[in-house]
Design goal:
globular, 128 residues, six-stranded mixed β-sheet
Amino acid sequence: MNYKFTSRCEEDTLELAENIESEKFPGMVICLNGELGSGKTVFVKGFAKALGIKETVTSPTFSLVKEYHDGEMPLFHMDVYRLDNSTGDDYLEEYFYMDGVSVIEWADNLSDIIPDEIALCLRRYYGI
């Protein structure tokens, strides 16, 4: 399922994240794609806040995954900007079947291993 969402400000992005969080379920995978600076990490911050996560959320660009366990359910935040489908990081797929929500920035880079039946894909664009 792919959605295009146009946000005109950070508040719109945070509101979207909160609305989607209210529909969460264990094993949910949220795929974020968009240009640099399009608000992917802002979305994750809003989603984490709505989950009740108190930790500061930052993009895991170099570690690939950050896990947050202090909310209503675990949040697995991935930033796979530096990967491509041929890198062999299939261990990331394990997160999709855990009792938490996976949110993936630059999800197109993992399109070969993300199951369609559990993925909510959002393409982010500003200002149109």
